[in-house]
Write a structure and sequence with these properties.
CATH superfamily of the largest domain: Heat shock protein DnaJ, cysteine-rich domain
Mean pLDDT: 80
Largest sheet: 4 strands, mixed
CATH topology of the largest domain: Chaperone, DNAj Protein, Chain A
Radius of gyration: 37 Å
CATH class of the largest domain: Mainly Beta
CATH architecture of the largest domain: Ribbon
Strand order of the largest sheet: 15-16-22-19
Structural class: alpha+beta
Number of strands: 22
């Protein structure tokens, strides 16, 4: 029965070569037999399908004759002639032998693939037959969340925080060696910090550079490790750090403090400190981007005749003019009384004052009589 290579790769008959290549790579990752979830039979089917569909000429023949086109064309250009495959099925040793050179790649239909693209997640290497696995001594980053008050976020502030973090060992000053101890080149790795190991795979022997277990990748070893940090050059301490909060910082925004993270081992540079912010709500003000919203209750007379009222802003009390015939829901704008732009305090949003006209629950007889007269006048 004719095989449907398009179904094997999960693409349509109108798929482009890029779509076919992408589908092949995805399925090759998923079904590679050296993965726990791999399936060798499925992997062979995927390769067979890509051998045909990945080649424009063979794809045309397949579209015309189906998977039996090899017989129809006298055995030229069919699957049996594909590189790395034979009439008896897929041969892993031949595949590895044919593709063991040239920097760790292999070819299907004349197209070069990098082993790192297809098999990198299986063996942990890519782009060649060797990979250097070295230890990084750079300090780790730290991420924290800091809760601040509403006005601190608007105008900025300075905060003191306390972190438990790695800092340079005072006993050895970061060298990792006990005071007075001689430091010499590591005898096992000869100062490189790496040792070479070979791993046999279906693609041949893969040479890998591993971290030297004797010096832990440093390339040198003291006669005696520091008694306080045990050779790492750093110890964990409680540290006091001053943080400058920029003006206009918003909820969930983050600042970076270079070098504020953990100190690196062996005198290497420290990581960074990332601070995200949570902002306490304010009873009077609500932030809307660069603007601030507040509410103001006025009475019927003020709404009708207009007035001038003292209100609170972020910067203190100011007089707000209430126009005549102001309705509930009207927004009055006080320019440049809002949130400063981040790190640009001279550029600010506005204060938006939403008006609510409050109806009195009790009024005197005189007031009621006056309202009746006003009602008749307006009728």
């Amino acid at each position: 029965m004719s095989k449907n290579y398009y179904d094997t790769l999960g693409v349509s008959k109108n798929a482009t070569q890029d779509e076919i290549k992408k589908a092949f790579r995805k399925l090759a990752h998923e079904h590679h037999p050296d993965k726990k979830s791999g399936n060798e039979a499925k992997f062979k089917e995927i390769n067979e399908a890509y051998q045909i569909l990945g080649n424009e000429e063979k794809r045309k023949q397949y579209d015309q004759f189906g998977s039996t086109f090899n017989s129809a064309t006298g055995g030229t250009g069919g699957f049996n002639n594909a590189q790395g495959f034979g009439g008896g099925g897929f041969n892993w040793q031949d595949f590895a032998r044919q593709n063991s050179g040239g920097g760790g790649g292999f070819s299907f239909n004349g197209e070069e693939f990098d082993l790192g693209d297809i098999f990198g997640d299986v063996f942990g290497f890519g782009g060649g037959h060797s990979r250097s696995r070295t230890k990084s001594y750079v300090g780790e980053d730290i991420e924290i969340v800091l809760t601040i008050d509403f006005k601190e976020a608007i105008f900025g502030a300075e905060k003191i925080i306390y972190l438990e973090k790695y800092d340079t060992c005072e006993n050895c000053q970061g060298s990792g060696a006990e005071v007075g101890s001689k430091i010499s080149t590591c005898p096992e790795c000869k100062g490189t910090g790496q040792i070479r190991q070979a791993q046999r795979t279906i693609f041949g022997t893969i040479a890998t550079n591993m971290v030297c277990p004797t010096c832990n990748g440093a390339g040198e070893k003291p006669e005696k490790f520091c008694s306080k940090c045990h050779g790492s050059g750093r110890v964990k301490n409680k540290k006091e750090i001053k943080i400058s909060i920029p003006t206009g910082i918003d909820e969930n925004q983050q600042i970076k403090i270079s070098g504020g993270g953990h100190t690196g081992e062996k005198k290497h540079r420290a990581g960074d400190l990332y601070v995200s912010f949570r902002i306490n709500k304010d009873k009077k003000f609500v932030r809307q981007g660069q603007n601030i919203l507040t509410k103001l209750n006025i009475d019927f007379v003020q709404a009708t005749l207009g007035d001038k009222i003292e209100i609170e802003t972020l910067d203190g009390a100011v007089n707000l003019k209430i126009p005549e015939a102001t309705q509930t829901g009207k927004i009055l704008v006080l320019k440049d009384q809002g949130v400063p732009e981040l790190n640009r305090p001279n550029r600010r949003g506005d204060l938006l004052v939403e008006i609510f006209v409050k109806t009195p629950e009790k009024i005197s007889r005189k007031a009621k009589k006056l309202l009746e007269e006003l009602k008749n006048e307006l009728a």
